[in-house]
Structure formats: C-alpha cells, structure tokens
Amino acid sequence: MRIAIVLGEFPSASEVFILQQITGLIDLGCDIHIFAGTPGQAVPSHALYEQYALRQRTTYRPATQQEMRERVWDSVQRRLRDLSLAPREAWRTLAVSARWLTGSARSELWTLYGVDLLRAGRFDAVHAHFGDVARLCLRACQTPPRTPLLATFHGYDANVVPRMHGLDIYRRLFAAGEAFTVNSEFLKQRLLGLGCPTHKIQLLPVGVDLSKFKCRVRTLGATERLRLLSVARLVPVKGLDSAIRAVAHLLDRGLNVEYRIVGDGELRAELQALITQLGVAERVHLLGAQSHEQVRELYHTSHVFVLPSVRAARGDEETQGVVVQEAQATGMPVVVSDTGGIREGIVEGVSGVSYAADDWKALAQAIGNVAEHPETWAEAARAGRALVERKYDLAALNRRLLALYRNVCDSA
Fold first, then answer.
1. What would the pLDDT profile of 254-265 be if each residue is shown by its tens digit?
2. pLDDT, tens digit, for every residue of 345-383?
3. Sheet bearing 179-182, strands edge to edge
4. Cα–Cα 20 to 30 A to 111, which of 13, 93, 243, 338?
C-alpha cells in the first residue's frame, strides 16, 4: 500500500513512537512517504531514521515563497492533466491554485500540506498525526480521485485545541474522515464529546518494541540507594515539580533515594532552581534530552519509575504515557498520577500504583510504600511485562494499523 504520513514536525524527540510506527509499516511492505511542516531538532541521528533513510522519504513545507510557488505550479500542471477525468474538481483546484499564485489566497489552509499531497500523486490513504494537522489535509483528500483520510489523535489536539478554537473545530474532519485512532479510553471519550461518531473511533495505543526491552526483576540491597526515574518533557503537564518536592520530603524522612529526570523543555531553569532551593542537588539530577538507546539503559539501571503528570492550566492532560509501558516492559514497578488515561496502562496495585494528581505528599507516600515492600517487585515485573505484551506490543499494533488501512480503503 502507498501511504502518506502527515505530521507537524519530523522527527521529534518526544514522538519517537511515530518514528517506530513508520518503520514498522515499512517492514510490513508499505510504501511510506512523509509530509512534515518542519524538520525536528533533536533526533536526526536516531538509528531508525538513518537505517531506513527516512530523509529521502520526507517532504518538508517550503521554506520560501518562491519554493511554494514552484510546488503550486507543479500541482497546477498535474490538475490540467486531470481535466478529462474530473473536470469540475480540476477546475476548482486550479482556481484555488491561481489565487494562491497571485497572492490572494495564501491563507488557504489546504496549501500547507495539500499542494504537496497533490504533487506526490495517488496514495491509497493519508494518515495524519494530530487532529489539527488532519484538518489541513481535507481539501487535498477530497479532490478527485478522493483519498481516504485517517487521523491519530494524541492529546493536545483534543484537550487544548478545542478550548482555543471552539468545540466544533473538527466537525468537518469527523464527517469526512474515514477513521480516527486514539491511544486510550480516556481520549476516546474526549473525541466522543467533540462529536466524533463512535463507529469511526479505533482504540490503538502507542506501542513498545518489546525486542528492545529486557525484563528483569528489581532488587534492593539493605544499603543500596533507591533509584527513581522519570522520562518526560520539562513542561507543566508533566508535574515534575511535585515529584521533586516528594523526593525532598523522602530524603528528609531518611530514605536513601536518588531521582533522575530525562528530558528537556521550557521549565528546565525553574526546576533546577527548585532543586537548589530544596537543597537536593546531590540527589536530584536533570539529565537533559537523551537518545532512545540511553533512555533504555536508564530504565535498566533504575528501580522505580515515576510519572507525576497533572492537568495543566491550558487543558493539557496525559492520554497514555507510553514511557509507563516502556518502564513496565523492563520489569520496573511504576508510580503514576491518576490524571487522564495513565492508569489504563498499569495493573493497579500490582505492576504499579496511582495517587491523586498534583499532591506531592500523596506521591511521596506512594513511593515510600513501594520502597518499603521490595518483596512485591517480582510480581510487579511479571504483571507489568505481561500487560505490555498483551496490549502494547508494537509489532502487533502495526499489523492492526495496516489492517485498518486496508479496511478503510476497501470501504471508501
């Protein structure tokens, strides 16, 4: 199958799972081409990006007006060739292109990705990541010969965008698109609330490449330091200030604990200042952005994983938290907040425990309880790994996605 994958940024440090999905589809025989607004800054050297030569499969949004004009003109020539096949739609597209070329329609949404989709020729399906990106593909997908459009919602697009632009922002997308995938029941309910038809929603979580994560039961020696780990962007929705306060409290209580945080973002200076203020700089470390290979090593050398996400002021809320599945795949017990859809990805009270979001005292108590009962960690490892194998196996989920493509194309 020839599939167009449309993204805002590619590759992205916080969306390695999309990179893994794309390469998995290539392994399954799909002819993939990627359309992205901008190149990512942090992962151009990711092994999969290089191994699969994905730069050669990617078209980026034009950097200059001249480049955009050249692409639009190429699209015009293609539509002229289509006049005999679909004259009414071809003339309509030509009219929009002409207005763009003369500078009178540069705000037309479809020109962001639509021109390049039209230039690239016929695809069996277009798969857009994030609902707001999918909206920009509507015009191109509806231009004959019509192309089935699928969209994967990830969270920001359902939690924040409608608050900014209105609850009916996806009305046309939901009507025209063939299928919409979500990573959790929580996110499914959000889409239903925005008006998406139930029969168009498919639950398809973000997967984990199980071959990359070896499961090992954690043990804690009598004098060994408890090593906590978080992998998260340093942004408000991740609630990392709560975790830092919780660790400071545990240190005051005498718990021999160390906390490592992987990731970067806008709150780095603020979090570092909090670490200094609380006097825990020797035990709490901001490691910055790390490669996926380095993150896997940190999983394997840590005891307990913590994801302290909160509901941010602008509406951001965690919908899955794939790092929780990665941690469980290695056998780590996990401590997570009860916000969004995170708890759907653990075996409550066995592979992990949840606590009331944004309550650092409750988080400290939850970590303390896990630390005091290392005899339960073997069962946590077995239950967590089994859960990930059953629900989050990347290979199985990629096969399900390919089946969805085929079903959508057959019914279009």
1. 999 999 999 999
2. 999 999 999 999 999 999 999 999 999 999 999 999 999
3. 58-60, 31-39, 2-10, 125-129, 149-152, 179-182, 201-203
4. 13
Residues in Cβ contact with 251 at an 8 Å cutoff, skipping those fewer than 6 apart:
257, 280, 283
Other residues' Cβ atoms within 10 Å of the Cβ of residue 108:
15
Model pTM?
Answer: 0.89
**Which single residue is written with the structure tokens 């009598």?**
222
- CA 300, CA 307: separation in Å to the nearest integer? 17
Q: Evaluate whether 125 touches 409 at the Cβ level (below 8 Å).
A: yes
**Helices 360-372 and 240-252, packing angle to 10 deg:** 60
**Alpha carbon distance 18, 42 (integer Å):** 14
Chain centre to alpha carbon of residue 65: 30
Angle at 260 between CA 367 and CA 242, to 5 degrees: 50
Tokens of 360: 């650092």
Torsion of CA 160, 163, 169, 170, to 10 degrees: 40
